[in-house]
Amino acid sequence: MSSPLKNIAIVGASGSVGTFITKALISQGHHNVTAITRGHKPATPRNKSAQMPEGLHAIKEVDYDSHESLVEAMKGQDMLIITMNVMAPRDSQTKLIDAAIEAGIHWIMPNQYGGYFADDGSNEAGRTDMLRAGTMAIRRYIEGKGGNWIGVACGFWYEFSLSGQEYRYGFDFEKKSLTLFDDGKVKHTCSTWPQVGGAVAKLLALPVSGASPCLEDWKNKQVVFSSFALSQHDMLASVLRVTGDKESDWKITHEGTEERYERGQEMFKQGNIAGFGIFLYVSVFFPDGKGDLTALRENEKLGLPVEDLDEATKVAVQYVESGRSKEWGLS
């Protein structure tokens, strides 16, 4: 049996999900974690208050326009984890992959957190051809360079999505309004940020090879896990328990999944980025139920904890009340 990977480089260590992954890796004590960060990064609503987690082995500033800078930062690393904003320049990820492979890194966790995309198209939620194409292209790119990838099929991030605007889960906390997709009873799987961080950390604590479970079990595959399997009605019930509201305090309307998907597509085509969120989120609530990955999840194999839904909802409500959730709007 081999040992776990020791030296882990992560892009986005101070970002949303990256913070939780980085902290979980550091807390295990198995790894030297290095943050790869853009030098002289301009302040934005997303990073103005971001701080690097304590306990990092190193922080290396890079110039994305300099291949040599990226390669030098990744020398000596065993794995590269990429977490970045969906609106980052399209070539950012391939630049990182090229540098990682040249630096001798053979394990890469690309910027793919959320949906399940199998090569044969099985168990995929919604009509996400655009996302599938990009996801598959990056996987094949890594393989073509001689590297190995591991995707993270965790579903949507629960507290982030619930605290967001109506174009995500249909909740608008400021207006106390909720748009139910169809009847609001279709379940989907989702994960909290701590669960994502813990899952990645437990995965990388495994030996690379040997008796299962080992890292090679997920070589060029996705690791599938979740915190909850929820419908919009389940989420609303939790919100009411946490806030003390009554259902009558909320204005509830309905929109068909098909209608909402098409509306989001049209908005996006016309340049309204919120349309992307609308058609992306509603895709896991289609009546076919393919947004529920419970049958595929590997929580027990990874030794993940059972979480408390209301505690996670409290975090989402706190994000709303603090105004932090407004920093995560699509722009």
UniProtKB/TrEMBL annotation:
Residues 6-158 form the NmrA-like domain. One of its GO terms (molecular function) is oxidoreductase activity. InterPro entries: NAD(P)-bd_dom_sf, NmrA-like, NmrA/Isoflavone_reductase-like, PCBER-like. Keywords: NADP, Oxidoreductase. Pfam families: NmrA (PF05368). The keyword NADP applies. CDD domains: PCBER_SDR_a (cd05259). It comes from the Eukaryota. This is NmrA-like domain-containing protein. It comes from Friedmanniomyces endolithicus. The lineage of its organism: Eukaryota, Fungi, Dikarya, Ascomycota, Pezizomycotina.
